[in-house]
Amino acid sequence: MSRLIVVSNRVSIPKARGAAGSQGGLAVALGSALRERRGIWFGWSGNETGTFSGHLDMQKNHGVTTATIDLEQQDVDEYYNGYANRTLWPLFHYRIDLAEYESGFGKGYERVNQRFADSLGPLIEPEDMVWVHDYHLIPLGERLRARGNKNRIGFFLHIPWPPRNLLVALPFHERLVTTMLAYDLIGFQDEESVDSFLGYCRKELQADIGDDGTVTYDGRSVKVAAFPIGLDYEDFLEGGQSGEARQAEQRMRSSSRHRKVIIGVDRLDYSKGLPERFDAIGRYFDTYPERVKETLYVQIAPPSRTDVATYQRIRNTLEQKAGQINGERSEVDTVPIRYVNRGYSRAELFGIYRSAHVGLVTPLRDGMNLVAKEYVAAQDPEDPGVLVLSRFAGAAEQLKDALLINPYSMEETSEAIRTAIDMPLDERKARWEKLNAVIKSANVEKWRANFVEALGA
Ligand code: GDG
Q1: In CATH, what is the architecture of 233-441?
Q2: Which positions ≥6 away from 177 have C-beta within 8 Å?
Q3: pLDDT tens digit string along 176-218?
């Protein structure tokens, strides 16, 4: 079996499997693939240094070898906080209004991809397969090819690929896409992204598109397909059996005192539709004032990318909205919204999800959205809650038995909340069973195996 080399912006140092709970599903799935294939996980250490040294820090933890490099401060500013998080992230989430185009960002992005290629190149052996992850590293495959690399190299994008008429707002869009065609396999989360990508290649590059999604351009062929990412289902359920999970569930139940709990869990990010969600909750309370005292909306939103100004702004907006809704509707003994800016362990999240009658997942755009899948997986099969899901999350292509909504419509979201809270047990069970079957079978192991198999083919 050929070795697998995984490359991503950050590397998650593998922990023992029993110690899961502190580790995300992606790290668990990639870790198990790397153990099976004696692979290497390569990326940025997260450290900033004065000048770039190119020093490789190799470590072996629980059977997985990791190799990391430090970056210099200018790299982090231009590549990570700049091009990745202020140019590509907003643009790929359809927010051209927030995307910033600075030539320094683009240069930093190319420089860091070159540095990744130069540090990684010597580690790759002729039979290895290389799997590159996400928008930080789109040009990496082409940079490796320029060094003479002939291995099978695949790329997976965790976020959406935007439609052609949005992508063309990016200076040098053609260069970005043509470098991407240096991979052997390109994977997206959903069919919509595949269609957008193929549409771009057809119309802007006049590339040939085969019936099976193979793009032929400039003498090379690249296979393009959807590989919807899944949950580390068994591991997540196992964590849900722990005392920590049960205590979290108990705490939620006793503190909500028979109120219907609506749960949201999101990184604090403008793509997650949080201000719109708060407005929809306000609308629900305005439309059904008699329900205010019977309802509790809990929003967990750990801050992320705090170095970027748009992320600081959204935090202020949400504090103001939560304060206003609570100020207008609280009683001395009840508060309708609990807005929490901290993270919880995965086991605690399981318990919190399980205590909630409604899972409210309303991104304006999302590659997949694993919270939607976690909410379903954590439910009690005998008394499951209802998932309200944005039609603009990649997960909506798979989770058709959720209540699908347009998150831009406060009215639609508010009515879906009402439908979810009033839904009879039979219907809740019927919907949950179908959703859970999809989530259980299309898990993260399957995702990983499908991608690696397609890359090897
Ligand atoms: C990107 C794409 C795609 C959240 N709060 C806590 C916590 N979380 C965990 C959730 C979930 C994960 O973070 C978030 O995953 P999402 O999929 O919802 O979103 P992104 O972070 O934006 O991820 C996305 C994903 O990549 C994978 O391809 O689905 O579309 O944007 O697992 O549970 N985890 C812990 N404490 C928290 O407080 N431990």
Answers
A1: 3-Layer(aba) Sandwich (3.40)
A2: 167, 200, 201, 204, 205
A3: 999 999 999 999 999 999 999 999 999 999 999 999 999 999 9
Q: Do residues 1 and 38 make contact, with C-beta atoms less than 8 angstroms apart?
A: no
Atom of ligand 1 at shortest distance to CA of 370? Answer: 17
CA of 120 to the centre of ligand 1 (A): 27
For the Cβ of 158 lying below 6 angstroms from any atom of ligand 1, the answer is yes
Label residue 20 by pLDDT band (50, 70, 90): very low
Q: Is residue 410 scored above 80 in pLDDT?
A: yes
Global confidence as pTM? 0.96
Q: Give the integer Cα–Cα distance in Å for 249 and 76.
A: 39
Looking at residue 87, what DSSP letter applies?
I
| Pocket lining: 160 vs ligand 1, CB cutoff 6 Å | no
As a CATH number, domain 4-230+444-456 is 3.40.50.2000
| pLDDT tens, residue by residue, 38-53 | 889 999 999 999 898 9
> How many angstroms does the Cα of residue 309 sit away from the middle of ligand 1?
21
Distance between CA atoms of 132 and 332, rounded to whole angstroms?
53
Per-residue pLDDT band at 293 (split at 50, 70, 90): very high
Fold agreement (4-230+444-456, 233-441): yes
Ligand 1 neighbourhood includes 303 CB (under 6 angstroms): no
Q: Where are the alpha helices (DSSP H) in 257-308?
A: 274-287
Delimit the domains of the chain by residue range.
4-230+444-456, 233-441
- Ligand 1 centroid–CA 374 distance in Å is 10
- How many angstroms separate the first and last alpha carbons of the chain? 13
Cβ of 343 closer than 6 Å to ligand 1, yes or no, is yes
Q: Catalytic site residue 366? A: yes
